[in-house]
């Protein structure tokens, strides 16, 4: 069935026309070779899923609620536990064009007295890869360029989802509906897919208690990225490495981080630590990655000194208003990752603090493992989809839990202002290099690869965790080698026969 043809009905709710969808939909009784995947969310996790489906030859479509994709936020990092995947995809050279390598995380008191640093060089030597820092928007644009435009549907706000043993459907605010075999919720911490899925599970008494609880909100942040700056005022911008500096306020729960980027720009983040009462008050006000600047918050931190010279207000003034965002930093690991034909990835299922630099990395790892599992589905049946989803969660849950906990711990060490957190910071930032490096090795040894593409060379000087291989890819490669060998043998026979005729 082509995408122009009318879709088959999959027990749609009364009053919802299945003919409004323009995406190819399988007949409920038909077993297809490959599934149709509906991806909700055109963020980093959603676009990575789309890009991998494109590589795997899996039919997919992306639905984004915004009318225009506009990634907000400041800097983003990719570390050695995701770079081998980007190497498989041939994207490393592209990333180098708009990034700087991170060599250390430096910490200062408000008077700019040096506290200590976490040295990244031993980590790079052992893992075989650097950590790259760049503006979030540029990486997002790179991913966007890898997905055909006709595969992305903009201005599609999800109102509800429906699913059964025959298929999955999303209903949008513009009265359009779309059907497929698999639904992937990659729509962020306040995922519409997750919320409707959990509502349905709760009504059936199937939702675990922990998944009914609110996320833990611990920081209120303001983030932005400046326009190109004068390197005479900020000489550090001439360096070929990223300077990541955090300054802690004295006597108040604030801190700021500055990150130098290519093209003489500086990404900045201000952190306001909240107690439980404050976080509860903020919860119902949450606007996520909104573009509205919080003027009161800005005025509170304008005079904060920065390591590179001047005050934070100078960087704020050099940042376009539409590039300043108020961000609430939440954290939560959900237990329910999938149900029926729906799977969740990224912040939709494990929201972590950005202090570990693993939020985007973890979303991409989810995408890789999920698409690896979908790739193994050679006959699209409900049971096979269930098995693939269960495999996805079993491979990812433990590692995502570690990343969430690591983010919580590092946030306390890097930005916490309580007495115990200050003591911990003094200890961690002054540990011997070998001790600092050892604490990051568990994260570095786990690096899932795309199992249906050739693996990259192993550059690590440490033992990596084993990964579940693709049985399908192994069979396909064996068949390819057999065909190539047969073709070579046939060519050799033809050549031999030709030589005999020439002699005669």
What would you note in describing this structure?
By secondary structure, this protein is α+β, with helices and mostly antiparallel strands. The chain has 14 helices and 19 strands. The strands form three sheets. Strands 3, 4, 5, 6, 12, 13, 14, 15, 16 and 19 form a ten-stranded mixed beta sheet that branches. A six-stranded mixed beta sheet has the order 7-2-1-11-18-17, with helices on both faces. The chain has a three-stranded antiparallel beta sheet with strand order 8-9-10, with helices on one face. Helix 11 (382-415) packs across helix 12. It is globular, with a radius of gyration of 25 Å. Residues 1-30 and 287-293 have low confidence and may be disordered.
Please tag this protein with its features.
alpha+beta
Short summary:
By secondary structure, the protein is an alpha+beta fold. The chain has helices spanning 44-56, 83-88, 92-97, 121-127, 136-145, 192-203, 276-283, 295-301, 312-317, 359-375, 382-415, 419-428, 433-445, 471-503; strands at residues 36-40, 59-63, 75-78, 100-109, 114-119, 131-135, 152-153, 158-163, 168-172, 177-180, 182-185, 216-225, 242-248, 254-261, 265-273, 325-333, 338-339, 342-344, 350-351. 36% of the residues lie in helices and 21% in strands.
């Amino acid at each position: 069935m082509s995408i122009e043809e009318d879709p088959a009905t999959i027990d749609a709710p009364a009053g919802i026309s299945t003919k409004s969808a323009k995406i190819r939909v399988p007949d409920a009784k038909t077993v297809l070779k490959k599934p149709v995947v509906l991806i909700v969310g055109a963020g980093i996790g959603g676009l990575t899923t789309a890009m991998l489906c494109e590589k795997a030859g899996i039919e997919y479509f992306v639905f984004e609620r915004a009318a225009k994709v506009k990634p907000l936020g400041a800097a983003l990092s990719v570390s050695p536990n995701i770079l081998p995947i980007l190497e498989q995809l041939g994207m490393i050279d592209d990333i180098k064009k708009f990034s700087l390598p991170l060599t250390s995380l430096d910490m200062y008191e408000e008077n700019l007295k040096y506290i200590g640093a976490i040295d990244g060089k031993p980590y790079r030597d052992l893992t075989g890869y650097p950590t790259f820092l760049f503006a979030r928007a540029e990486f997002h644009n790179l991913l966007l360029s890898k997905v055909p435009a006709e595969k992305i549907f903009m201005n599609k706000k999800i109102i509800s989802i429906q699913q059964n043993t025959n298929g999955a459907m999303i209903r949008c605010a513009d009265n359009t509906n779309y059907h497929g075999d698999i639904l992937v919720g990659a729509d962020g911490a306040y995922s519409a897919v997750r919320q409707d899925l959990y509502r349905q599970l709760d009504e059936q008494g199937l939702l675990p208690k922990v998944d009914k609880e609110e996320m833990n909100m611990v920081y209120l942040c303001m983030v932005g990225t400046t326009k190109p700056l004068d390197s005479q005022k900020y000489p550090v911008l001439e360096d070929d490495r990223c300077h990541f500096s955090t300054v802690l306020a004295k006597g108040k729960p604030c801190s700021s981080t500055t990150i130098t980027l290519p093209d003489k720009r500086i990404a900045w983040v201000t952190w306001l630590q909240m107690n439980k009462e404050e976080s509860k008050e903020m919860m119902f006000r949450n606007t996520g990655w909104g573009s509205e600047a919080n003027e009161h918050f800005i005025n509170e931190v304008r005079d904060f000194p920065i390591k590179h010279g001047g005050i934070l207000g100078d960087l704020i003034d050099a940042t376009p208003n539409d590039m300043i965002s108020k961000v609430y930093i939440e954290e939560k690991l959900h237990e329910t990752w999938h149900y029926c034909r729906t799977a969740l990835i990224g912040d939709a299922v494990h929201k972590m603090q950005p202090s570990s630099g693993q939020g985007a990395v973890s979303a991409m790892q989810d995408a890789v493992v999920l698409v690896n599992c979908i790739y193994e589905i050679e006959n699209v049946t409900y049971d096979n989809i269930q098995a693939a989803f269960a495999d996805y969660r079993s491979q990812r849950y433990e590692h995502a839990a570690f990343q969430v906990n690591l983010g919580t711990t590092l946030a306390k060490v890097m930005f916490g202002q309580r007495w115990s957190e200050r003591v911990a910071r003094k200890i961690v930032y002054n540990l011997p290099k070998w001790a600092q490096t050892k604490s990051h090795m568990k994260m570095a040894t786990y690096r899932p690869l795309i199992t249906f593409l050739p693996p990259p060379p192993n550059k690590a000087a440490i033992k990596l965790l084993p990964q579940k291989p693709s049985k399908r890819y192994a069979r396909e490669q064996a068949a390819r080698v057999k065909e190539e060998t047969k073709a070579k043998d046939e060519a050799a026979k033809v050549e031999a026969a030709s030589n005999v005729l020439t002699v005669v």
